[in-house]
Write a structure and sequence with these properties.
seven-stranded mixed β-sheet, single chain, about 15% strand, globular
């Protein structure tokens, strides 16, 4: 039988890279234990919600056509509402991705003349076209919905003073992005988000507060909906899908706002009553069931990567020690060749498509070329081990996911292996 060292060698990891990884991992035992404890808490939360709503095998049956009385769909939406402690939720395969879920939550609850305010600075790249920051067909701007933005302070915290000026009688909705996305600012903790929401509501109590929760679910033991968010929105090919959901998005929040989302998703008059679940329900339920421990694996990978690259002298966000509020790890690799090598290493560690070579490319929704590494079971799934690097300074690579900790670890070691081979790093 091969030893573990020989297994890594077969994978193409040289002994100095393996040894380096071992030294780093040895220092992380306490962090990993804390992550496991949080996963345990969140696992209870999910199982309790499933038991309370009497999830049964009948919930997994195929529903077609209009989808009236689709038991699996309707029960799953109650389960999500209980997990997020909200009045209602919309969880559907017809919501095609996270951007779509966010666009839906916005367009369903804003009307011509209303203003949307982002209090967390520039939103995620794809939202620029949704809002109309970059002119785009069908944007909110085309429908007469205005937008204003309050940039974060230099240290990445909320600029409360300018938030108070930005909220006017036109302000209908405020959006807060929990995760850094493709930026190098820190991600927000749920408590920080709660403080921002409380501040906004003191100025104008009826403002709808929406949180883009992508990559944040199950990282902490509370969610933004526990601290006053009226809507929380995310993608099922990220954390809450647990790697099994093949498509989908969710919106959880106040009943009236979720009802509006239903009418916008399908049609006025029809709303949430239609939308057959087409056999994907078992993967949605089972994915949610796995999500707390899958998220924990991804977090361990992110912390491992932070510690590896920090000790090699690279700037990493978050750093190797600070608390985590999402699963994304940014590593500033300084030169484009290193971004390419890093992504090729991640790709080479994948269970699927390990033999393909990622190249930088123009992607819809992004304003520079992007190189993406993903050898995923679900196309583009970023709860699976994946890395994205926009080809622009500071040449940061954004690394996330890993359905299992051993795979996340392999991917990071392989990224280092490729940097060593390209003579960009010496151990
Ligand atoms: C991924 C992501 C989105 C968009 O989700 P897609 O599924 O890629 O459309 C929006 N906001 C944040 C913060 C994200 O991480």
């Amino acid at each position: 039988m091969s030893s573990i060292e020989e297994m890594y060698e077969q994978m193409g990891i040289c002994s100095s890279v393996h040894k380096f990884g071992k030294q780093i991992e040895a220092k992380l035992a306490k962090r990993f234990l804390e992550i496991d404890e949080r996963a345990e808490y969140n696992q209870m939360k999910v199982i309790l919600a499933m038991q309370k709503n009497r999830v049964s095998e009948a919930c997994f049956h195929y529903a077609s056509g209009y989808g009236y009385d689709d038991l699996g769909r309707d029960t799953l939406e109650k389960v999500y509402a209980d997990v997020f402690h909200t009045e209602a939720a919309l969880v559907r395969p017809q919501i095609t991705c996270g951007t779509h879920a966010l666009a839906l939550a916005l367009s369903a609850n804003l009307r011509p003349g209303d203003e949307l305010v982002s209090v967390a600075g520039k939103p995620y790249d794809t939202l620029e076209e949704v809002i109309g920051i970059r002119p785009s067909k069908g944007s909110l701007a085309e429908y007469g919905i205005t937008y204003s933005q309050v940039d974060l302070l230099e240290d990445g915290s909320f600029d409360f003073e300018n938030i108070s000026h930005a909220i006017t009688e036109k302000t209908k909705m405020v959006t807060i992005q929990r995760s850094k996305g493709y930026q190098t600012r820190p991600s927000f903790s749920v408590d920080q988000i709660g403080a921002a929401i409380a501040f906004v509501k003191r100025i104008k109590p009826d403002v709808i507060c929406m949180v883009d929760n992508c990559y944040g679910e199950f990282v902490e033991t509370i969610e933004p909906s526990d601290v006053g968010a009226d809507l929380v929105v995310g993608s099922l090919i990220k954390n809450p899908g647990g790697g099994l959901a093949p498509i989908g998005g969710y919106i959880a929040g106040k009943e009236e706002l979720i009802e509006n989302c239903g009418y916008r998703l399908t049609s006025p008059g029809l709303g949430r009553e239609v939308g057959a679940s087409l056999g994907v329900m078992q993967s949605f339920y089972q994915g949610l069931f796995l999500a707390p421990s899958v998220t924990a694996s991804a977090l361990k990978g992110a912390i491992f990567a932070a510690n590896i690259y920090e000790s090699l002298g690279y700037a990493v966000v978050p750093n190797g020690r600070e608390s985590r509020h999402d699963i994304i790890q940014a590593v500033e690799l300084k030169v484009p060749e290193a971004v390419i090598a890093f992504c090729r290493g991640i790709q080479a560690a994948a269970p699927v498509d390990s033999y393909v070579t990622p190249e930088p490319w123009a992607m819809p929704g992004y304003d520079s070329d992007v190189i993406m590494a993903a050898g995923a079971f679900v196309q583009g799934s970023s709860i699976e081990l994946s890395a994205d690097g926009p080809m622009k300074p500071p040449y940061a690579v954004y690394f996330q996911g890993g359905l299992t900790w051993p795979h996340a670890k392999l991917g990071i070691l392989m990224s280092l292996e490729y940097l060593v081979r390209a003579k960009l790093v010496t151990l």
